[in-house]
Amino acid sequence: MDFAYSPRVEALRQQLRAFMDQYIVPRIGAWHAEVAAGQYPVSFMDDLKALARSEGLWNLFLPSLGEDEPGMGLSNLEYAPLAEIMGRVHWASEVFNCNAPDTGNMELLHLFATPEQRQRWLEPLAVNQAAGRSCPATLQALAAWVRHVRGDVRSVDDPQAQALAQLWQAHGANGIIEALFGSQGLFASTWVASEADQVQINAALFP
Predict the structure, then answer these.
(1) 121, 205 in Cβ contact below 8 A?
(2) Higher per-residue pLDDT: 133 or 62
(3) Buried b vs exposed e over 141-170: b needs ≥16 C-beta within 10 Å?
């Protein structure tokens, strides 16, 4: 098999490297400083995203795009060397709308969603009007909260479960969703690897 880069991929590699060198690498220090101060997303992320999209470096990962869908339509083989370049700065892929969990969420929606689901969830993700959430860190609390609602007293002393219960009482399902996935989190891939009495959620569309 010939793994040589095509002229198109080589041109994208050069364009992506130049973008990384000019706009991303100089901001590595600022990114760490803002995140350490508790600010996320960082203040300059939206500006970098807008610039990347204006230069055509957007949704590089998703093959088989339609003519009306934003992105390059690259194959996995074409995308691989670009992912390698982005991977040299761990947060860089977000600039190009190529970051997890949005990539996997968009691919699943692109392959399997109904037309209505594509319009409601895929299109906002593809143009960066929404963000997906992958949230294993909070799922233990979510499972404990569900057990608490079912009357399992073992979760009463779980402070995160208690906080979720208070959100449920004050704001209903929307409070739980926003607490776990953020105000922009429309599509969430979630999982719990646990004992049989815990809750397992593989994928969910919110709301």
Answers:
(1) yes
(2) 62
(3) bbbbbbbbeeeeeebeebeebbebbebbee
Is residue 174 scored above 70 in pLDDT? no
Question: How many beta carbons lie within 10 A of that of residue 131, not counting itself?
Answer: 21
CA distances from 42 to 34, 38, 94 (A): 6, 9, 11
d(CA 75, CA 77): 5
Task: Please indicate, yes or no, whether the overall pTM of this predicted structure exceeds 0.70.
Answer: no
| Short-list 85, 47, 89, 53, CA closest to 72 | 53
Q: Which two tokens stand for residue 57?
A: 């470096």
Cis status, amide bond into 115, omega within 30 of 0: no
